[in-house]
Amino acid sequence: MNKKADIVRVYLPPDANCLLSVADHCLRSRNYVNVIVAGKQPALQYLDMDAAVRHCTAGIGIWDWASTDEGSEPDVVMACAGDIPTLETLAAVDLLRTRLPDLKIRVVNVVDLMTLQPSTEHPHGLSDRDFDAIFTAGKPIVFAFHGYPWLIHRLTYRRTNHDNMHVRGYKEEGTTTTPFDMTVLNDLDRFHLAGDVIDRVPRLRGIAGREKQMLRNRLIEHKLYISRYGDDMPEIRDWHWPAK
Q1: Spacing of C-alpha 163 from chain mean position
Q2: Contact at 8 Å (CB) between 9 and 124?
């Protein structure tokens, strides 16, 4: 990210079809340093191939099928970049949609990290107007990121709504443990993300006490379960986006 903007590209595809689209683009490109960040474990598929190509071509987009703002101004923007952050964000959205059905959530997925920069700094960067259209000019943003949180702040510090952006990411925590527990150790799991939303949406602070207690209890259940069985709880391990 410190290298020249006309050379470096960084991509974080959220699923296999997006990975195929990004890889096809990178293998056809010339005179660039292309970085693709993707996991090697089986993962959920969110987009069909045509939708993946459109999403990766844009580099960033609102996922209407996961959002509940329905064209209106959201109460909160939940953004994600990377396969595991995307999984945990969507699982958090699923929790919030179940427990707080009137909450207006906008889900934003970032494939091309350079879109977060201003268009004056990188050719893939969004203009301030387009950035505000996606992330709003004043609503809270909870951003789940595959890498170090400070990088997202560094890319967006000049944006209108940067002060309302809360980033969860890798913070050098980890050990020999379960996949989900790795996210818990770094506060990047679905329960922490859902709690972040409750803490940052003003109208929820006084009415969502039971939901916050539920989230804390689920984290306790998780720790007790992995200590006993050495694996993630089935409802965590087998979670998928609910069918319509």
Answers
A1: 18
A2: yes
Do the beta carbons of residue 26 and residue 11 sit within 8 Å?
Answer: yes
User: Which residue, chain included where needed, has tokens 């989900």?
Assistant: 180
Identity at 203, one-letter amino acid code: R
Q: Is residue 45 situated within a structural domain?
A: no
Residue 244 clears pLDDT 80, i.e. is over it: no
CATH code of the domain containing 154: 3.40.50.920
Q: Which residues contact 143 (CB under 8 A, 6 or more apart)?
A: 79, 80, 81, 152, 165, 166, 167, 168
How far apart are the two ends of the chain, measured CA to CA in Å?
39
Band of the pLDDT at 181, cuts 50, 70, 90?
Answer: very high
Q: Pairing state of beta strands 76-81 and 105-110?
A: parallel
Sign of CA dihedral 230, 238, 15, 88: negative
Q: Which helix (H) or strand (E) holds 68?
A: none
- Residue pair 123/22 in contact (Cβ under 8 Å)? The answer is no
Hey, is 163 helix, strand or coil? helix
- Above 90 in pLDDT, residue 226? yes
Amino acid at 91: A
Over range 160-173, report the average pLDDT: 93
Q: Which domain holds residue 108?
A: 60-237
